[in-house]
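Late entry, evening session. Most of the bench is empty. Finally got around to the prediction I had been postponing all week. Sequence below, unchanged from the version circulated by S.P.
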Amino acid sequence: MAAVKVRRMDAVLKGDPRAEVPIVPDVLGGPKEVQQPVWDLRLHRVYGLSREGRGEEAIDRIFEEIDELLRAEHLRLAADDECYALREYIPRGGFRAGETNSLILNLKKHPARQGQPDWKYKLLAIQQVARELRGAINSAWLQGAVIVPMPPSRASNDPEYDDRMVQVAHALVAGTGATVRELIVRTVSRVASHSQEQARDVDRLLQSLGLNESVAVPEPAKIGVIDDVLTTGAHFRAARYLLQRRFPSAHIVGFFAARRIIVDEDSD
């Protein structure tokens, strides 16, 4: 099989967004002597919108793999967790912190804003995140995959329930051969994680999450859990635990619009 062209992070950071290197796709799972499907999850292109939501120019990005170096910033992740993020979000940076912060904050806009003039920015953010994730995931991997949106902090019967990631998931899979299943559900409403000071605890999260058996059949072979921001990784760990226990043979991957970066507030 031919090598896949993937944009190198270091080349992009050095100001050469067109730099490309051939990378042989990874063979996921199974001993080397056994023929397995070849799935490469690393990005080739992302189709983005300008900050104003007008599709002016395509933005080239690559997935950043959360490897052993980056896991220090996402302490709840384990060595065998496979997670990828497209952007870097600055906590407490507000809209002034840049285009990524604006995108994420608009995506997280509270449901109480529906019907207000600024609600359109949430809808635009949903479409942009879906486009970026769809463009980032290898189309061959998406074929037949199940996309699982991470549930919000509020249960679906809560007046403050926000289905933003469900909307992202449905927009993402359009025309790809993938399907959406809300396999992970919030059983009890919690205070939004980004508003909590305490560290996220996987065991505590599992007390408010459950697996939706009504959509568990047929058993999926490939599961992509999608969320807006990767912080400690506790939500992904909890979701993966529930999914892997129910589907032990499934290949489970986390795809994130952005990852939270740790900023030294004392630096200049």
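Two things to note before I forget:
The helical segments are 9-13, 99-107, 119-136, 139-142, 164-173, 202-206, 234-246.
The CA atoms of residues 83 and 254 lie 4 Å apart.
Will write this up properly tomorrow.
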